C-alpha cells in the first residue's frame, strides 16, 4: 500500500506500509550533488576518466540516490517532523546518467514506546536493486507547525 500523509500518527503506521519516489538522473543532478557534497571524484564528473574505470562511463554518486529516502521520510512516510536516527546502505550496482531511480521505503516494525519506526530501504533501476538498506526514524509526539 502506497500512502501520502503529512500528519500520520505513529499509531497509524503499520508493518508493510510503503512509499515510493522516482527520479531520472541527469548530468545537472550529478554536478549539483558534487557541488553540494564536495565529492568531485572524477568517476562522477570526467567522461575520459570514467571511460577507463570499471564502469566505462560516468556514474552518479551513491548518496544522490540514497538521498531520495530522506525525501520520502520527510514528505510521505512517516511524514513531516520525522527525524532520521540511522541508515545502513549497501551499494549493489552503479547508477548512470539517464537511469530512472525508484526509491522505496517499507515499514518493517514500529516501536510505539520509543516512538521509532524501522524501514527496509531500496533503490531500483529497471527493477534491479542498486541500493539496499535499513533505516530507523524517530517520530516526535508533536509534529505540528504553528504559523
Describe what you observe in this structure.
Helices cover 23% and strands 33% of the residues. With 147 residues, the protein is an alpha+beta fold. It has one domain (16-138): Roll (Thiol Ester Dehydrase, Chain A). A 5-stranded antiparallel beta sheet has the order 1-3-4-5-2, covered by helices on one side. The mean pLDDT is 92.
Record the SSE blueprint.
Layout: E1 18-24, H1 27-37, H2 42-45, H3 47-51, H4 62-75, E2 83-91, E3 100-111, E4 116-125, E5 128-138
Antiparallel strand pairs: 1-3, 2-5, 3-4, 4-5
Q: Percentage of helical residues?
A: 10-25%
CATH architecture: Roll
CATH superfamily: Hotdog Thioesterase
Q: What is the count of DSSP helices, taking H or I runs of 4+ residues?
A: 4
Give the percentage of residues in beta strands: 25-35%
**Largest sheet entry:** 5 strands, antiparallel
What is the total number of structural domains? Answer: 1
Quaternary state of this entry equals single chain
Could you say which overall geometry the principal axes of the C-alpha atoms support?
elongated
Tag the structure with descriptive keywords:
single chain, 4 helices, 5-stranded antiparallel sheet, 33% strand, alpha+beta, Thiol Ester Dehydrase, Chain A, 147 residues
How is this structure best summarized?
This protein has 147 residues and is α+β, with helices and mostly antiparallel strands. The protein contains four helices and five strands, in the order βααααββββ. The model has no long low-confidence stretch (mean pLDDT 92).
